[in-house]
Amino acid sequence: MLLITVVTGQPEEQLPQLQQDLGRYPQLDLHPGKNMSSTSFMPDVILATYCYAGERPSVAAIFKSVWMSIDIGSDQFTVYRGANASDVLQQHKVASGQLFTLLPWRVRHVRLPPFEPTCVGVETVERYSVQLSVRHVDYWLALLLAAGLALFVAAEPLSTNVVFHYSSGVAIGMFGAVLVAVFVLSRLLPRRSSALAFLFTGWSLALYLLQYVLENLRQHLIRYRAYVLGYLAVSGLLSFAICYWYGPVKDRRSQTLIKWFLQLVGLGCVYMSSSMSEASMALVLLLVGWQALPVSVGVRMRAALRRRLFRPKPRKLLSEQEYLEQSAVATRQALQELRQYCRSPECDAWRTVSRLRTPTRFADFVEGASHLSDEEVLEYELEPTTLLPRDDDDGASEDDW
Question: Any stretches that span the bilayer, and where are they (predicted)?
Answer without folding.
Answer: 137-155, 167-189, 196-214, 226-245, 280-299
